[in-house]
Amino acid sequence: MTVWDMGGAINGSWTYTFGTGNGARMVSVNSNGDWNHPIVAFTDLLQAEFCPGTTQ
User: Fold this and answer.
1) What is the pLDDT of residues 2-35, one digit of tens each?
2) Tens digits of per-residue pLDDT, 26-52?
3) Quick check: 49 and 18 in contact, CB under 8 A?
4) Please, which of 14, 21, 25, 51 could form a disulfide with 9 given CB 3.0 to 4.6 Å?
């Protein structure tokens, strides 16, 4: 499955949206705060939504 994404950050706020090309499955997330590695949380969310049943 191909998943597209777009996101960005400004002043401690990170926002990303992920979705399939046809828009059948989508998830958006926003994180506020001083995170060391916010991409890890987004990666976990991405895996949970689009790769259920897999483990890291």
Assistant:
1) 889 888 888 888 888 999 999 999 999 888 866 6
2) 999 888 866 666 777 788 888 888 887
3) yes
4) 14
Q: Are 19 and 25 in contact (CB under 8 A)?
A: yes
Long-range pairs for 34-43: beta carbons < 8 A, 24 or more residues apart: 38/9, 38/14, 42/7, 42/14, 42/16
How far is 44 from 55, CA to CA, in rounded Å? 10
Question: Measured between alpha carbons, how far is 6 from 52 in angstroms, rounded to an integer?
Answer: 21
Q: Contact 40/30 with Cβ under 8 angstroms?
A: no
Q: How far apart are CA 22 and CA 24, in angstroms?
A: 6
